[in-house]
Amino acid sequence: MASSSSCFVVIFMSTLLQFMFVSASTKHIDAICQHVTEKEFCVKSLTAYPPAASATDELKVVKAALDLAKSYAEKSRKFTVKVANENPNLKKQFMECGASFQSIIGSLWSATKELTIDTMTANYDVMVCYDHTRIVKDSIGKNRDEASKTIMNMTMMMDKLLAIAGGATELVL
C-alpha cells in the first residue's frame, strides 16, 4: 500500500510540475505576442516550438523566439543555394537571396548574444533583418518561376518570424 501511495505522489508531482512549466512559458509567450501584430500566429508558432514551450523563464523564451527565426532563415538559405545551383539563368539572383538569408542568420545570432549585454542593440539587430528580406523581395519578387515563388513565400514567413523575434526583444527592453 505504501508503495502505491508513493507512486501516486510522484505521478501527481511530475504532472503538477509540467503544468507549472507550461504555465510559466505560456505567460512569457503571451507577453511576447502582445508586441506582435499577428498575435494568433505568434502564440501558435511559439507554443509549437519545444524550446519556447518548455522555457522556464523570460530570457529562455526570448532566446527561443530568436532561435526559431534563425533556424527558419537557415532553412531558407539552404533552399536558395540549392535552387541557385539548379537554375543557371537565375543563379545570381538566388545567390543574392542566399546571402540575404545568411545576413539574417548573422543578425539574429548577434541579437541573441546582445540580449544580456545591450537589449537596444539586440532589438536593432532584429530590425535590420527586414532590410535583407526587402533585398530578397526586390531581387525576385517579379519572377514567375516556381523557385522564386517558393522563396517569396519563405520570405513572407521570415517576416512573420522576425516580427516574433522583434516582439521578443521588445519584451526585454
Keywords:
173 residues, mainly alpha, Butyryl-CoA Dehydrogenase, subunit A, domain 3, 7 helices, elongated, enzyme inhibitor activity, Pectinesterase inhibitor domain-containing protein, Pectinesterase_inhib_dom, signal
Task: Walk me through the structure.
- With 173 residues, the chain is mainly α.
- The chain has one domain (2-171): Invertase/pectin methylesterase inhibitor family protein (Butyryl-CoA Dehydrogenase, subunit A, domain 3, Up-down Bundle).
- The protein is 85% helix and 0% strand.
- It has helices spanning 2-33, 39-48, 50-53, 58-86, 91-114, 119-140, 146-171.
- It starts with a helix and ends with a helix.
Set down the secondary structure blueprint.
Blueprint lengths: L1 H32 L5 H10 L1 H4 L4 H29 L4 H24 L4 H22 L5 H26 L2
Helix pairs in contact: 1-2, 4-5, 4-7, 5-6, 6-7
